[in-house]
Please model this.
Amino acid sequence: MARVTNSIHEGLSGSVGDLVFYKVGGVTYTRRKPGKQSKTTKAKTSVIKRRSQSVSTQAHKFLKNITHILRFGYQNHENGASRPYHAAVSYTMKNSFKFEGTSKVLDISLVKVSRGSLLGPQDPKAERVPEGIKFTWTDNSLQAAAKPTDNVFVFLLSAEETDTGSKWEFLGNTREKGIHTLLPSNNNSKWHAWIAFSQENPWTKKRDLSDSVYLGIV
Model:
């Protein structure tokens, strides 16, 4: 990947020969198309390389359906052409897999839907109640940089074989309140649950986030 500085190529988009031009954040970048591998070459691919390819495929398959969540949760991880999604893929590939035999399999409990240095929730829990899914935590305001006005970020992802989607609240109740209830449209479904906190950054106007915490299936 390279940044395009030549004014002749600045506005290009798409393929030109063996190069691909694309724009990110108003800046044009280029990369070379990957070459096609022959069946003989593929057959010679090492176990380690095949495992790495499998990890990449699994990470993308899972994360591509929650890009809207990652844009919020990884909003401070943009770097040039690298977007929040790319940062999430990188973290997931390195930290969210476990061995099953000689293969690596995605462990959803290790996935982070947000990352940052803000103090996370203390004693977080998620439980099913008549009103929906109730998230609770202990108020740990004024520890480190945590503030009573920090907003909770909660996320539910369907754990059903028949996908029922996802539910979320980016700016939920404040840290000092210790409770937030999310109302899924189908309260009989099972959900993977995550929780984190965010705080407005007065200089960047973005949100500083904590690492998310996985709370299991509810």
Remarks:
- The CA atoms of residues 155 and 168 lie 4 Å apart.
- The longest strand covers residues 191-200.
- The chain has a mean pLDDT of 87.
